[in-house]
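Practice problem: predict the structure.
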Amino acid sequence: MNIKVEIKKDEYADYKDYGDLGYISDQYHPRAIKRRISELPYYAREYNLNSWYSLDYYYYIPTDNYQGTHKWLVEHGYSKHEAAMAEKSYYMQDLKRLLALYRGDWCYIGIVVTVEHNGIELGSASIWGVESDSDYSDYIEDLKSEALAEAEENYNNLVESFKVPFSELEIEDDENLS
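Answer:
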């Protein structure tokens, strides 16, 4: 039995779908952080927004992940100013991470684990949207377990189906051939 682990770039990943980092826009949003367009690298400008070249500013719309952080910090002894600065620092960390994504420093990947026996795939498991620079070894172990469980079930079903002698199998004609 062979277990194959493949790491593939998630070609269908769209940072807006994941929303963990917020997003960049040429449109104002009430929670937006306004930045000079000169600070936004060309690779971070979406190709479908023609207005980038006439803008002086862009807007970074932060994620909702930190909603309530300001209130929690104030309740736990931070001044309102300290809480606001902490919240903004979280947003700026996410913006830096988002720009690193655009720059290609990291990407979203998929991890695919396949179990084969004599060239026959018996089971597989996958997960997508994993950050390429994260430690994903736990994912691989979990996927191996999942793929092996599926392989065992499929193998047992195949073995059971072969207990019927070939001569007793029903042969169905393909109706499209007549």
